[in-house]
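Hey, can you fold this one?
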Amino acid sequence: MEKPHPQCADAVLMVRPQAFGYNAETASTNTFQRDGEPQLAASARELARDEFAHLEQALESEGISVCAVEDTAQPVKPDAVF
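Sure. Predicted structure:
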């Protein structure tokens, strides 16, 4: 069976964000990052996880096979979602 869009992937690997947040190493070149209060950081992590889940569902609803794996706690990777 021929794929309808041969340039598009029919499967993706996604890493579920565990420690998404401020990264001091990249903050100087990323104006969207803010080093804020712990409550804001926790909220940003939760939003990232929610957005991840929505993207996973959207891809699957379009017939894209998603292999979602958990991030590891160590080493901390605040940019793992990217």
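Residues 38-61 form the longest helix (24 residues). Let me know if you want another pass with a different chain boundary.
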